[in-house]
Amino acid sequence: MLEYAREHFPHPSIEYKQLDIGLDVEQFLAEHGKFRRVYSMRTLHWVRDQPRAFANISRLLAPGGECLLLFLGRCDVFDFIRRMAKLEPWTKYHDVCENAVPKTHDIADAAELKSYVENLVQSAGLTLITLDVWQRESSFLNTENAV
């Protein structure tokens, strides 16, 4: 994905770098410093340790910095993985699969999800300006037919 961005969207002011936001960001901060803006589009639902990810985003921001985060509360792929992990020969990977699912995936109630994300933001020391929760039925994957 980064290579595609480098090839198709080069810009003298943009440098494409990889960072696992769920891990330690000290080395990245030492190399690149803090940022005025952090954008994350449809990626944070892949991070199991979302509290750490939000804390890391906060650490990456310069004073007065801004972030825009768009992510899925639920992702059909996790339902598929859970169902598959109950079947042979995948049962031996059940714990690995389960440890990949973020807490937001199991929060079906919109108000509860909003409260959980508000807490993530506040616990990370970020100031919440707007939080929208949209609910819709997914047509991406039918786990019954896929398994």
TrEMBL record:
<dbReference type="Pfam" id="PF08241">
    <property type="entry name" value="Methyltransf_11"/>
</dbReference>
<feature type="domain" description="Methyltransferase type 11">
    <location>
        <begin position="1"/>
        <end position="68"/>
    </location>
</feature>
<protein>
    <recommendedName>
        <fullName>Methyltransferase type 11 domain-containing protein</fullName>
    </recommendedName>
</protein>
<dbReference type="InterPro" id="IPR013216">
    <property type="entry name" value="Methyltransf_11"/>
</dbReference>
<dbReference type="InterPro" id="IPR029063">
    <property type="entry name" value="SAM-dependent_MTases_sf"/>
</dbReference>
<dbReference type="GO" id="GO:0008757">
    <property type="term" value="F:S-adenosylmethionine-dependent methyltransferase activity"/>
</dbReference>
